[in-house]
Design brief:
The chain is an alpha/beta fold and 507 residues long. It has two domains: 291 residues, 3-Layer(aba) Sandwich (Aldehyde Dehydrogenase, Chain A, domain 1), CATH 3.40.605.10; 191 residues, Aldehyde Dehydrogenase, Chain A, domain 2, CATH 3.40.309. It has 17 helices and 24 strands. The structure holds NADP nicotinamide-adenine-dinucleotide phosphate and magnesium ion. Magnesium ion (MG) binds next to strand 3.
Length: 507
Amino acid sequence: MGDVMNVQTEINKPQTVADARKIVSLRTQAFIGGKFVDSLSGKTLSSSSPIDGSHLANVAACDHRDVDRAVSTARAAFEAGHWRNASPNDRRKTLLKFADTLEANAEELALLETLDLGKPIANTTSVDIPLTIETVRYYAEAINKVYDELGPSPSNAVSMIVREPVGVVAAVTPWNFPLLMAAWKFAPALATGNSVIMKPAEQTSLSLLRVAELAAEAGIPAGVFNVLPGDGPSAGKPLALHMDVDAIVFTGSTAVGKLIMGYAAQSNMKRVGLECGGKSPQIVMADCDNLGAAANAAAWGVFYDQGQVCTAGTRLLVQKDIKDRFLEKVAGIATGLKPGNPLDPKTEFGSLVDETQLNTVLGYIEKGSAEGAHLRAGGKRAMTESGGFYVQPTLFDGVTNEMTIAREEIFGPVISAIEFETLDQALSIANDSIYGLAAGIWTSNVNTAHIAGRALRAGNVWINCWDGSDITTPFGGFKQSGFGRDRSLHAFDKYTELKTIWLQLSN
Ligand code: NAP
Ligand code: MG
């Protein structure tokens, strides 16, 4: 019976953008105060699908006036207190209902994400949407299980150390995991009682707009969850500059992260949390006893989601003795992996997000060759006849850490392989980067594993795996990969103020 149903679902999966578009609810207005509204200017942005380049929808293009409206609505909701003052247990129940509502609409959300972004439907169905739901459930369940503190005060006083919501939280998020990156912000922010205003990336606002509606359906009060689509300078910047926004949390590039810090400094010194770029090293030692697994992880650590992953392990450091053998394996995986239609459930490698990103990636590939790196696999645009924006999985050998393709974040499926001789050399190359988001090492020597685990300057260090993590572990960067942590209970730090209340007792 189960098999028959699975077959049925497979058959019903739309294979073209036109067919998929017919079965999703496209929400295109801003969501403010529990309602969909046009942008005050009436302007829209065109959202298209990188699967075939076709037009999907015109989405409200919000600007500073919409920001003012959303901030005053969010502030009023915060002051009214229906959400902030609700008991943690009641917020828990509403957020669990929200998670159930997301789950009931999971297939549609996965389809929206794939349409807008070109990520394989297999990935949005098995990763993006389930992890988004899990994030909401985790913070829902956490909020009535964390306790405030009583300080070690003298017997004639009581010191209470309590956490309070910061107030109005604005979140500016990127296009590579549109819902998941948003959920890492809104779930802990909502759980702790804040009002939130989300600014999705202009390429991918459709899924979050639909989620706003589902949040309202689940009983999140009007004004507590708002979504303002629009481009960064028009909608994100005025949010970050707003005098009545209490915190701005951001996931995106380091360049824009620095602007966000500046906006906070120029306005009201609002709290800032930044998850920015990466150029993560994966080190493969000759003593690794499973080079097959390491090669697979090295390849998929970059080719997953076409390399549009902030933690992509794009600098592949391989010890000299095994380099040729090892890269042979990685090159084999790269050439065997063909870009395909993201709507086909069998596709493992889809399109890039848009034409601009395609040109950026192709530009870096050209630069790699021009600076003397050796192209071992891929390097070309693919599936041009589809009208979409595809590029082949690409591997460069003979890279030095000074080359542009080893220093700058490409955000595409491009591996830069660098040879080293000793562990010390590997660690110093690995740490020679402005970024520090993730790093990894493959070794069978427990000493080497420990030494590297401590020495690598990154927020996530993976030993004999890549991307080992879940919602219970903090995620974030060292250095110019940002500061503040998403996921785990540590995320509550960004959305709460720590207050000390000292109560003096009369004797
Ligand atoms: P991006 O260009 O920095 O954009 C991120 C967000 O910032 C978008 O919503 C963008 O809006 C907005 N923005 C742009 N200019 C702005 C401004 N002047 N003021 C306020 N907001 C502004 O990054 P992206 O290209 O979307 O995403 C890729 C980047 O995100 C990569 O660097 C990647 O490493 C990083 N990332 C990091 C993590 C992490 O957790 N560390 C996770 C995922 C991605 P518009 O695009 O609509 O203009
Ligand atoms: Mg799009």
